[in-house]
Structures are given as structure tokens and as C-alpha cells.
Amino acid sequence: xxxxxxxxxxxxxxxxxxxxASALGIAFLDTGATYRAVTLRAMRAGDxxxxxxxxxxxxxxxDLELIPRSGGLGVILDGRDVSEEIRTETVSRNAHHxxxxxxxxxxxxxxxxxxxxxxGNFVTEGRDQGTVxxxxxxxxxYLDASPSERARRxxxxxxxxxxxxxxxxxxxxxxxxxxxDAARSVGPxxxxxxxxxxxxxxxxxxxxxxxxxxxxxxxxxxEAV
Length: 225
Ligand code: C5P
Known about the structure:
alpha/beta, five-stranded parallel beta sheet, Rossmann fold, three-stranded antiparallel beta sheet, 52% helix, 225 residues, binds cytidine-5'-monophosphate
């Protein structure tokens, strides 16, 4: 069973994917963490992030473990817990270098497929999961929300983590990421042809989860455990 959830930053994919996976009793894969890990590894090495060859080398060499934890995902990079560090605004802002490189994407797509094979049944979220990485997925979703709501959610999240930023500042960063996500030639952000579109603006996570579960039940017969 493979369920993909794609969509722009702040659409609620991570929480939705985690909650859906937990409701169905299956695994959860956050593919943004793979791009963030490459970015962080290159930043730590002091490498020029616009050097795609260097970034691809980091992608090939990194030892990345994604461990499900209650309320989140443990990310272990080369033996060190970087779960918090990969979520900082600096990494978010710099991730477009890795995301925009066809060479890096090639390595990470293979890594994601390998993780998927090991997981067996899983919900995966990102930008290209239904289009490129798992085109034969059983159910594909495309989650979106208005830019102002996405900025508000992201700003709340940053405040909780002690990195307060105004919704206006976050909105600009989000619009910039939307543009680079949609414009890249490899793995651009777009809904798969057979994706179910959901707009989560104004919805609680409970509403979104119920709607996701309803679609999964209708299409596959799988129920919440
Ligand atoms: O989803 P998240 O914000 O953690 O993703 C971090 C970055 O990785 C995003 O800016 C996005 O461009 C990129 N990404 C991607 N393809 C994916 C997942 C994330 O290009 N499947």
C-alpha cells in the first residue's frame, strides 16, 4: 500500500501524512527531510551550495536514518540527531539548491524508493511523490491551502520552535519557494494526473484526516485500525 501526498510548503502535508499513516497503522516517509539533510551536510562542510557536483557527492555519501517518533520524525545524519537542525529557516531557505539539481534528485529519488521498499506499506509526502518517485501509488493526494494560511501555519510552527517570524516575512519566503518548486525542470511541484485535490484552508487537522481516510477507504477498502 503506497499513498502519496504532494503539495506546496505549509499545506499541512507533514501532519496529515503522519496522522494518516498512524491511523492506518502503516509507516510514514517525509522526503523533504532528505533534501534538508543534504543541504545541512553541505552547509556544515562549508561548501558552496551552488556547486551541484558537491551537493550530489553529499547526497551519495550521507548516512541517513529516518526514525518514526511520537509527534515527529527522528532524523539521524551520519550518526548525529539533526531532527531540529534540518527544520531551521536557514536550511529551508537553502534547500532549493539541492532540490533544483537533477543530479541530487537522481540520488535522492533512488534513496526514497529504497526506503519505500523497506517500509512496504507507507504514506509518503513531498513534491514529486505521485508524479516521479511512486507513479504506481495506490492513492495520490495533492494538498493545498491559501498562501496566507500556509504562511500563518509556518509562522506558528517557527514561533513554537523559538524562531519567531512574522506571517508577512514567512509569506514572502513561501512564495519564493513555491516559485522555485514549480519552475524546476526535474521533479517540479505539480499534481499527478490522477491525484485527489484537497484544499485545507480553514480545515482542522481532524477534518483533513477524516477526508483523507474517506478517500482511502473508498479507493482501497483500507480502514483506520
Ligand atoms: O517539505 P519540506 O519543506 O521539508 O521540503 C524541503 C525542501 O525540499 C522544499 O523546499 C522542496 O523544494 C524540496 N523537496 C523536493 N522534493 C520533495 C520534497 C521536498 O524538492 N519530494
